[in-house]
């Protein structure tokens, strides 16, 4: 993997990540394909919207259908018919948040599946093996996502464990990668504490990774606290490596994180919101279930190229969601992913042209203007 930093504008960065499966333009938003599918979307649709990479979930895929089964079928790219790069998370967050009776030790995490209660052991080595079997082009170290709130002592203990697991993940990756050109990212932990974030960043760089993620955010600390952590963390990361903010977020989160030097994002928000009737637009959020949309002939955004955004009336989308029709979830998911990719493309262009701060101000002006029916 090769990262090229092409342009900076203030803290914002425009770059490219070259992988064996293709180039990722940054800043990049990665749609989440939890169980080898981006919910309610065809892979070709996701690609056509401008996504260069998608995310797969180690925890869910190791349980069903199984990493060895996916490998036997050609890896995730063949399995889900996605022709671009794939990043997989380590599975650690889902183990702690979804599984039954998870018990953590120095060795790893022993847990019971939330599907059938079967017992499994996830270690740093097994996590890397699973991600390799899945065929991920970018793999993540196993870490503990420090809960919030946590005392300084609790956050330090958690961070130190994650750093030991990171070193073991790096050793396992060296055994499994076999020179295929894929990448391994370390994950900075440390809660909301500046000194711990700096220690974690330094320890990861001593180990040496192809990219660096910021983990343990969007777990309840709030938007302002998240930005404060980014303010002190991204300057401590290498300039010549990609930076990935895990599990974030809203359009506002993305704009602010890009301003602070983040290159990569993933979040279930656009797809989950779409399934539940919320659309993200250039003029703010739209709750399509609201009665005021029942007779509104306007599309969500007739300036967008996406047909879900420009072709179907709000009245029709309102009707579909009120009736619980699958098409309603499909169309709003399609629109939301299109908007997120348009947002990333607009930020890349603004950075390239040296006008990111103007774009940032304009973005907030549009969001504040709202989306009131002018009739």
Give an account of the 3D structure.
The chain has 375 residues and is an alpha/beta fold. The chain has two domains: 2-267, TIM Barrel (Alpha-Beta Barrel); 274-369, no CATH class. It has helices spanning 43-48, 58-63, 67-72, 75-80, 92-98, 124-134, 152-177, 194-207, 223-233, 251-259, 269-275, 307-310, 314-323, 326-352, 356-369; strands spanning 2-9, 12-19, 22-26, 28-30, 32-33, 54-56, 86-88, 100-104, 109-112, 119-122, 138-140, 183-188, 211-214, 243-245, 264-266, 278-281, 284-287. A nine-stranded parallel sheet has the order 4-15-14-13-12-11-7-6-5. The protein has a three-stranded antiparallel sheet with strand order 1-2-3. A hairpin with a 2-residue loop joins strand 1 and strand 2. Helix 6 packs across helix 7 (152-177), helix 10 (251-259) runs parallel beside helix 14 (326-352) and helix 13 packs across helix 14. It is globular and about 60 Å long. The model has no long low-confidence stretch (mean pLDDT 96).
């Amino acid at each position: 993997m090769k990262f090229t930093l092409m342009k900076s504008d203030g803290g914002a960065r425009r770059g490219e990540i070259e992988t064996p499966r293709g180039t990722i333009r940054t800043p990049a938003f990665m749609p989440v394909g939890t169980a080898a599918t981006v919910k309610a979307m065809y892979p070709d649709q996701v690609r056509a919207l401008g996504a260069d990479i998608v995310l797969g979930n180690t925890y869910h895929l190791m349980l069903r259908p199984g990493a060895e089964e996916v490998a036997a079928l050609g890896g995730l790219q063949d399995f889900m018919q996605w022709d671009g790069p794939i990043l997989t998370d380590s599975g650690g967050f889902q183990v702690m948040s979804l599984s039954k009776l998870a018990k953590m030790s120095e060795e790893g995490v022993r847990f019971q599946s939330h599907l059938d209660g079967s017992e499994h052991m996830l270690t740093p080595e097994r996590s890397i093996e699973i991600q390799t079997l899945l065929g991920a082009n970018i793999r993540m170290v196993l870490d503990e996502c420090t809960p919030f709130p946590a005392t300084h002592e609790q956050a330090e203990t958690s961070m130190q464990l994650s750093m030991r697991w990171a070193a073991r993940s790096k050793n396992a990756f060296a055994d499994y990668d076999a020179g295929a050109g894929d990448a391994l990212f370390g994950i900075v932990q440390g809660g909301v504490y500046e000194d711990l974030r700096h220690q974690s960043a330094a320890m990861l760089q001593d180990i040496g990774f192809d990219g660096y993620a910021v983990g343990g955010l969007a777990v309840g600390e709030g938007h302002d606290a998240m930005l404060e952590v980014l303010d002190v963390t991204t300057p401590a990361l290498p300039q010549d490596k990609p930076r990935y903010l895990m599990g974030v977020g809203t359009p506002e989160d993305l704009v602010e994180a890009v301003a602070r030097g983040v290159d990569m994002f993933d979040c279930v928000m656009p797809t989950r919101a779409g399934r539940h009737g919320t659309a993200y637009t250039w003029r703010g959020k739209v709750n399509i279930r609201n009665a005021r949309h029942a007779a509104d002939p306007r599309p969500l955004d007739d300036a967008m190229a996406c047909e879900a955004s420009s072709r179907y009336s709000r009245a029709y989308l309102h009707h579909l969601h009120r009736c619980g029709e699958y098409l309603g979830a499909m169309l709003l998911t399609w629109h939301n992913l299109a908007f997120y990719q348009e947002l990333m493309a607009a930020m890349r262009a603004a950075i390239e042209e040296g006008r990111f701060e103007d774009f940032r101000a304009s973005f907030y002006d549009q969001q504040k203007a709202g989306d009131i029916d002018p009739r």
